[in-house]
Amino acid sequence: QVQLVESGGGLAQPGGSLRLSCAASGFTFSSSSMSWARQGPGKGLEWVSGVNWSGTFVVYEDSVKGRFTISRDNAKNILYLHMNSLEPEDTARYYCAVGIRPPYDALGQGTEVTVSS
To answer: I need a surface site. Which of 50, 68, 75, 78 has the fewest CB within 10 A?
Structure first.
């Protein structure tokens, strides 16, 4: 079955960086569009970024444009989210998802990101 395992979360200071990874299995990752979504404290699930199967088309939610970069390694079945210039408002649980935008075909368990000084 589809498995999406996120890692790389943790505590970062404002202005800092983190790189999230998502190891995918159980489906044909190399032909699937993928996304990152997040859920902040007391908030609903928010789409963050999406990438097509080849990595040649990427889209971002407005608040992360210019700060976050989505990428993928189809040889390793891994999806990445490079997060720079982190802000306290980026504090959330980050999820890897199958699909370029919602509705998603599958969602991982998530990894926690806290941005605080």
So the answer is: 75
